[in-house]
Design a protein that fits this description.
The complex is a heterodimer of chains A (242) and B (332). With 242 residues, chain A is α/β, with parallel strands linked by helices. Chain A has a single domain, classed as Rossmann fold. Chain A has nine helices and ten strands. Helix content of chain B is 73%, strand content 2%. A two-stranded antiparallel sheet of chain B has the order 1-4. Chain B is globular and about 65 Å long. The chains are: A alpha/beta (242), B mainly alpha (332). The interface between A and B is medium-sized, with 30 and 19 residues.
Chain lengths: 242, 332
């Protein structure tokens, strides 16, 4: 059996008596794009937090690159090659766009010049070169989302976790982001992304995992998922399929 | 960056020439030593508070650690003053590492409160131990270094100036280094910083260690300069607060803000203390000496410098959130 890049094994996360995530397992292979979907409160972001060291898991294991990483700190997870973006963007407000991306690049280099080179490269990829000198806090949301993307790409991740990278964007902005994701996919990126926009998910993903109330409801190809009656009931509109 | 180095060199040159131009004027030199010391203290605090965004309200602990360690080593073991300063750095560093490992788990206001608690623990310990002289403090007689008499003010003027220049140099270097960028990332958003691979506690501790070491050197210099210390002089919460207010009023997170703050505030405090302001108001007939206000000024203004600091701080936070330096351009 060949090893998966990421293996989520029976993850449970409880807050007090509340199970936010219970017994969720799935795996991600290299160069795959996995969609993680589910209604609000399904536990998608909580799962991301557990995977990246922001929350300790109650039980279960996260195996990344053949190593158990669920006891690592967030920065160690990042340096091991798995990096996440934030649903509510977290720009380093008083720093410039360029400096924001450089800070991502510093996870691979100590040299200012190399960090600048990596940053310029990533800014070109997301078409933010014109904004390089602007303060990150002053930008509109669409630009901030692109900045999030450039910043995590600058860490040269093996696996990208994108948390609603298109959330709050209009159609044009969403399309630009999706085009960038397609771009990095052809370069061989592996991505897990949380998204509400079903069109985006089905058009991009090789495999979809559906969460509902903290449990894994289903997983499969986009084709299978969009025709799964349980998923349709829970996620795409429960009343029609009662 | 080269421009800033030039400005630092220019400032250092002017400051170094100052005692030669003014001749023998102990009062003026004394005030200038205070200005340089507060500028350096506030700049050292700024590395942690301004760049890493960790507002320490307990920097007196490191000042006191330097002051006490140095005077204890000089008075009890007759150690060379320079080695005593190094001993002070070590003690301050140990306190910083212990503090950091515990307190940096906390964020925001909680970190500030915990830093006060640590400083108070240090103060009360010093007050109650025997080897620190307890409430009596420590008094030393004449000090000399390599046969060179340290009883005049000029050596300390230049000592403080050197520490200030070193502190500004370190700040400038840090600002354009990976560590400097990482500290600013931590200041802006700790979760984002961690998610981008920044080891929060390592970099916070690094900033604290640099800041504490510089602060302790200033404490050591001060102690040898004054030759008498007690907990009120070097470990008081008031000192920690003055360091912060100087930085806030000048401009937090900027290279020159803390220096500007000290240049403006220390002479102001000195004028209040020596009642120059009250006397001037009376002298020019703005306030009558026998009136209620005149008597009030004469009796109370001298003790009011912290109150004045407080009022200026409130005004700064309301109208100049980037400090006085923020008035000039980008405030970098």
């Amino acid at each position: 059996m060949n090893q998966h890049l990421l293996d989520i094994r029976h993850i449970c996360k409880q807050f007090g008596g509340n199970a936010a995530v219970s017994d969720v397992s799935f795996s991600v292979d290299e160069k795959q794009i996995i969609g993680l979907i589910g209604p609000n409160g399904a536990g998608k972001t909580t799962l991301f937090n557990c995977m990246t060291g922001f929350y300790p898991v109650t039980s279960g294991d996260v195996i990344f690159n053949e190593k158990k990483i669920n006891n690592l700190r967030p920065d160690e997870v990042c340096r091991s090659g798995m990096v996440r973006t934030w649903q509510s963007v977290k720009p380093l407000a008083s720093l410039t766009v360029m400096e924001n991306v450089m800070i991502g690049a510093f996870s691979n280099t100590n040299s200012i010049r190399e960090a600048e080179e990596i940053a310029i490269e990533q800014l070109q990829l997301v078409a933010l070169t014109d904004y390089a000198g602007k303060k990150a806090g002053s930008l509109p949301i669409g630009i901030k989302k692109k900045l999030e993307l450039a910043r995590v790409l600058a860490t040269r991740p093996k696996l990208l976790l994108l948390d609603e990278i298109c959330g709050g964007l209009n159609k044009t902005e969403t399309d630009t982001i999706l085009a960038i994701i397609r771009d990095i996919r052809t370069n061989g990126a592996t991505i897990v992304f949380i998204e509400h926009d079903m069109k985006a998910v089905t058009s991009l993903c090789d495999w979809i995992v559906v969460l509902n109330s903290g449990e894994k409801l289903a997983e499969g190809t986009p084709e299978e998922i969009t025709h799964n009656p349980e998923v349709i009931a829970a996620y795409l509109g429960g009343s029609r399929h009662a | 960056m080269n421009k800033q180095i030039a400005i630092i060199a220019l400032m250092a040159g002017v400051a170094a020439a100052l005692p030669l131009m003014t001749g023998e004027n102990p009062y003026f030199t004394g005030v200038m030593i205070s200005v340089l010391m507060m500028a350096a203290l506030s700049s050292a605090w700024n590395i942690l508070g301004g760049y890493a965004g960790q507002y320490s309200f307990g920097h007196a602990a490191y000042f006191g650690a330097g002051a006490y360690t140095t005077l204890i080593f000089i008075s009890r073991f007759n150690l060379n003053p320079l080695l005593s300063i190094v001993a002070g750095i070590i003690v301050a560093g140990i306190i910083a590492l212990i503090t950091g490992s515990i307190v940096f788990r906390l964020r925001g206001h909680y970190f500030g409160l915990a830093s006060i608690a640590v400083a108070e623990i240090v103060r009360l310990s010093v007050l109650n131990f025997d080897f620190t002289g307890g409430a009596q403090g420590i008094l030393i007689s004449d000090v000399s270094l390599w046969g060179f008499d340290l009883n005049s003010k000029n050596p300390f003027y230049y000592g403080m100036l050197i520490v200030l220049v070193v502190t500004l140099g370190i700040t400038l270097f840090l600002r354009k280094s990976k560590t400097g960028y990482y500290l600013q990332a931590i200041r802006e958003d700790q979760d984002a910083a961690a998610s981008l691979g920044i080891n929060l506690s390592f970099y916070k501790n690094k900033a604290l260690l640099i800041s504490a070491a510089l602060t302790s050197v200033l404490g050591s210099l001060y102690a040898v300069y004054i030759r008498f210390i007690d907990t009120t002089a070097v470990l008081d919460l008031r000192l920690s607060i003055e360091i912060i207010l100087t930085a806030i009023i000048g401009g937090v997170g900027t290279l020159w803000g803390p220096v500007l703050g000290a240049v403006l505030l220390v002479p102001l405090a000195e004028m209040l203390r020596s009642n120059v302001i009250g006397d001037t108001l009376v002298k020019f007939g703005i306030v009558s000496a026998s009136s209620g206000l005149g008597i009030f000024l004469k009796e109370n203004l001298a003790h009011a410098h912290v109150l004045v600091y407080g009022i200026i701080t409130v005004l700064c936070i309301l109208y100049l959130p980037k400090g006085i330096l923020g008035l000039f351009g980008r405030g970098k």
